[in-house]
Amino acid sequence: MSKANPFVAALKRWGASNAELESQERQRVAESSGANKVGDLCDRQQARLRGTISVLTIKPRAGMPWLEAELSDGSGSVTLIWMGRREIPGVVAGRELIVNGRVSCVDGGRRIYNPHYELVAG
Amino acid sequence: MNATDFVKRLLVGRKLASTQLGETLLPKRIALPVFASDALSSVAYAPDEILLTLSLAGMAGFAFSWEIALAVAVVMLLVVMSYRQTVHAYPSGGGDYEVATVNLGPNAGVVVASALLVDYVLTVAVSVSSGVQNAKAMMPFLAGNEGLWAAVVILALMAMNLRGVRESGSFFAVPTYGFLIGVLGMTAWGLFRILGLGENLQAPTAGYEVVGSPAYEPFVGLVMVVLLARAFSSGCAALTGVEAISNGVPAFREPKSHNAATTLAMLGGIAITMFGGIILLANLTGLKLIDPDGHSHFLDSGVPVDVAHETVMGQLARTIFDTFPVGFFFVITATMIILFLAANTAFNGFPVLGSILARDGFLPRMLHTRGDRLAYSNGIFVLAMAAVGLVLAFNANVTALIQLYVVGVFVSFTISQFGMTRHWTRHLKTETDPRNRARMLRARVINTVGLAGTGIVLIIVLASKFVYGAYQAVLAMAVLFVVMRSIKAHYQKVARETAVGAMDARLLPSRVRAVILVQEVNKPTMRAVNFARATRTSSIEAVTVAVDEAETKEIVAKWDEQGLDLPLKVISSPYREVTGPFVNYVRGIRSDNPRDVVCVYIPEYIVGHWWEQLLHNQTALIVRTRLNFMQGVMVTSVPYQLASSKYAFDRAERNSAAAWRRPGTGQVRVGDFNEPGRRE
């Protein structure tokens, strides 16, 4: 971001939409905790991510137990999949997490299978 | 049946099926009063306007009254003869609008239409105002609130017309014929007494002397011409309403054109006779009027006096029936009633013209709808509202309103006569039969003479009345013209935009993804789930928004309990709202593939009362509104009828209160007309 004119930057900040500000804020938090940016991830990379769960999918009881959550850090989103679990206490929509795992790209989407996770106290 | 239904049923009557349309056709004896009451009623105020305009020149002015009456009669004759050609050539009821559109192009048609629409509104306003002014003589409590009373009368007329044309026709026939008999009888009796018995009848104002405005003092040269022109244009108010018949041809019984032409001739003859008779009697009895705005006043042996204003009709009836008061009351009452009924002519003309314009896309399609009683309810409504606005604004002042009047009618006369000459010229090019050619040539001569006559009158009217108020009418026409052109442009633009292209019919969506909005796990939601599953979409998922943690937990638990085999997605909502995150989610799955379709199922409660509506469905409403702006997203509301919905259901079953105003596909009485080069 150019530092040429602080006034213009301030104006931009005032005029920015809620969503933009939120995304900037999350990116800043993720960066400060030494996490990677989702937008920069590539296939087979070991990554550390910090973000919030935007969508949590509860799979039907029938079939394989499988917990799926979409984590966004403001720069993009990644799908976290825990196999063999139907639910994990504390992993709910809106919760902030720090996760570690290997990224795989499937169908144009990024996934991390069975990531190591930490719940961040809200 | 509740109160509103009952009132509507009482006022409007029972519904008529479309097939009953034929039953509202008019025989000649009913058509004459329906369509002619306007033209005939102007006999009640046109002589007044001539005389009071002439009074500005003092005593010298009145000497010209019969010349002006003669001029008006000649113009009337020309117009009636010309219109007899029109009703034969264009029997579909488009009247002047159709003639102008076919022969001179759509712009000329719209000019005519805007002129006529303005004039219809003015007809209602002027006639009703004049009626109220007359009624004031009998009912003094009306004074001061004339505008209000005129508005009440207009609303009553609206109610009658919503019942349908024929019933109002037979209802209106009696007073019109009463007026006819009254005025003709009065004229005959008066002439018999004066000429036959040699009695010296003197009008109440005969003894006074009139002093005019100093502006017209030496009543010679240009000043004289200007004043005579003004008097003439005011007198031309007698011509308004002639075109009503040409617009109303489809309402006649078969043979329509012939019946309409006969009625037109009858109308012309009667109007000219009555008009001439009244002016003649006014001259013979020495009747005088003064300008109510105070530009002229009465002198009694040299001293100014204040005499209560009485109309020509009133003075004549008082004089001629001085020994027969029943006759006096009969004439006055009939005059008052026919003035109200004259407004009815416009109630017949305006909605039909409006519906034709709506059919051609110049006015909102709503006007092209027949109501429960097969009348163009929306047009009747619009006309009444416009006229009410006008009488309230002018407080039912006839002399002020009459200045706006007449311009529109002569604009449409002139343009339509020009159109008719073009019509004959065009047909003469291809016609070979010598008898037909002779008939067409004759018709063209008549229309050309009519064109010259009405054109000159239009110029006189515009020149003499423009500054006195005609400019307002011209302005209104211009505004209407622009509005109608823009409506047409809009409809055309939309039609072009929505026209089916080469690929549209075969472009199937590649995948349909179903999304069910879950806000609670209950019967309506389950119904939505079942509906969605029954449509067999490519993928299906339920979505709930985590607004409140405890609530979300409960929903998830309940969902799990149901053991459904479709996933539930919980969306985080950092700002505690449902709409935003849900719409974003739909946008997200939507952007994957442009040929995908997302089908959103929203359970909705059907409730019985409006206040219940406030308590339910608010989220659904907002979500639906937002999603409607998204490409490739369909919103399906899945209704769940609550027990209370039976009240609403019963109400709808009984009668829908707004049905008579609702747009639909009303069958049209006007026939289609063929025009060269333009047809949609």
Structure description:
The complex is a heterodimer of chains A (122) and B (680). A five-stranded mixed β-barrel of chain A has the order 1-2-3-5-4. In chain A, 23% of the residues are buried. Chain A has one domain (6-119): OB fold (Dihydrolipoamide Acetyltransferase, E2P), CATH 2.40.50.140. Chain A is built from two helices and six strands, in the order ααββββββ. Chain A starts with 5 loop residues before the first helix and ends with a strand. Chain A is α+β, with helices and mostly antiparallel strands. With 680 residues, chain B is an alpha/beta fold. Chain B has two domains: 27-491, Up-down Bundle (Amino acid/polyamine transporter I); 511-642, Rossmann fold (3-Layer(aba) Sandwich). In chain B, the strands form two sheets. Chain B has a five-stranded parallel beta sheet with strand order 6-5-4-7-8, sandwiched between helices. In chain B, strands 1-2-3 form a three-stranded antiparallel beta sheet, with no helix packed on it. In chain B, helix 5 packs antiparallel against helix 12, helix 7 packs antiparallel against helix 14 and helix 8 runs antiparallel to helix 15 (377-394). Residues 17-21 and 657-680 of chain B have low confidence and may be disordered. The interface between A and B is medium-sized, with 18 and 22 residues. Strand 1 of chain A pairs antiparallel with strand 6 (568-572) of chain B.
Concise synopsis of the structure shown:
The complex is a heterodimer of chains A (122) and B (680). With 122 residues, chain A is of the alpha+beta class.
Blueprint (SSEs and pairs):
The complex is a heterodimer of chains A (122) and B (680).
Chain A: H1 6-15, H2 18-32, E1 46-58, E2 66-72, E3 77-83, E4 96-106, E5 109-113, E6 116-119
Parallel strand pairs in A: 3-5
Antiparallel strand pairs in A: 1-2, 1-4, 2-3, 4-5, 4-6
Chain B: H1 3-12, H2 28-41, H3 46-54, H4 59-62, H5 65-89, H6 95-104, H7 106-138, H8 146-162, H9 165-196, E1 209-211, H10 221-235, H11 242-247, H12 256-284, E2 297-300, E3 303-305, H13 312-320, H14 325-359, H15 377-394, H16 398-402, H17 407-430, H18 434-465, H19 470-498, E4 511-517, H20 523-534, E5 539-546, H21 549-562, E6 568-572, H22 579-590, E7 596-606, H23 610-615, H24 618-627, E8 633-641, H25 645-654
Parallel strand pairs in B: 4-5, 4-7, 5-6, 7-8
Antiparallel strand pairs in B: 1-2, 2-3
